[in-house]
Design goal:
The chain is an alpha/beta fold. The chain has helices spanning 20-28, 88-98, 118-139, 153-159, 198-206, 224-232, and strands at 3-5, 15-17, 36-40, 46-54, 59-67, 77-82, 103-107, 146-147, 164-168, 175-176, 186-190, 210-213. Strands 8-7-6-11-9-12-10 form a seven-stranded parallel beta sheet, with helices on both faces.
Length: 233
């Protein structure tokens, strides 16, 4: 059954017009009045809905039964991920959403090739949030991960709340992540291509990040955070 993100109040028995993006998707799929779809608004669970009218640019549906279904991971993982070049960040956002990430904060690291600020940063953030929405629709999640504004590590540390923190590190003696256990929320810091700079890693350790490793092989910048999510799923 097709699934659509509808960030508006949903209630059984009510009729509503779908948001523009969802309406376009319904029209692309050539759905017809009487066909049933699934709606979710990120507030928990999902709703059956029946298409009741197809306009030229709008779609009206009748909201049906609510199902309190959740498909989230036991541990909430928040990624503080170094911005990667080209479309690799798009891929990271898509796959991280599929693997259950709770939120993503793009990190403007010292070695980041792509530097974002101003209007360009706003457009990229909206683009990544759209990828997260589409991925949540596809994979069955009823909660869309939040994409936070891009920051430097220094900016993040100034306003971050206390909590469990891991930093992916290749330093000798680093604890293997497979040995970590628990279900408490955690922030995972990973670098861009080339990794974090020595000063960034030192700042992270001073701020309470625990260095962890994924094994003897060096993973790509967009692969390592996904391996963490797979372990925590």
């Amino acid at each position: 059954m097709p699934r659509f993100y509808c960030p508006t109040p949903l209630a059984t028995g009510h009729a509503l017009s779908l948001p523009a993006g969802a309406a376009r998707h319904v029209q692309v799929l050539r759905l017809q009045p009487g066909e049933v779809i699934t709606l979710f608004n990120g507030e928990g669970g999902e709703f059956d809905a029946t298409v009741i009218r197809m306009g030229r640019s709008d779609v009206e549906v009748a909201v049906g039964a609510h199902h309190p279904v959740e498909r989230e991971t036991v541990r909430a993982v928040h990624l503080l991920a170094g911005i990667t070049a080209n479309d690799r960040m798009d891929w990271l956002v898509e796959k991280a959403t599929e693997l259950g990430v709770a939120s993503i904060t793009p990190l403007v690291a010292e070695r980041s090739v792509l530097k974002l600020k101003g209007e360009r940063a706003d457009k990229k953030l909206a683009h990544w949030q759209g990828i997260a929405v589409a991925s949540a629709e596809q994979c069955g999640r009823n909660r869309v991960p939040m994409l936070h504004a891009a920051v430097t590590l220094k900016e993040w540390l100034v306003r971050a709340e206390a909590g469990q923190r891991w930093v992916l590190s290749l330093s000798e003696g680093t604890q293997a992540l497979s040995a970590m256990s628990g279900s408490a929320p955690v922030t995972v810091l990973s670098g861009p291509e080339g990794g974090l700079s020595p000063s960034e890693e030192a700042s992270a350790l001073a701020a309470g990040f625990v260095p962890v490793t994924l094994g003897p092989r060096v993973l790509r910048a967009e692969t390592a955070p996904l391996a963490v999510l797979a372990i925590c799923a």
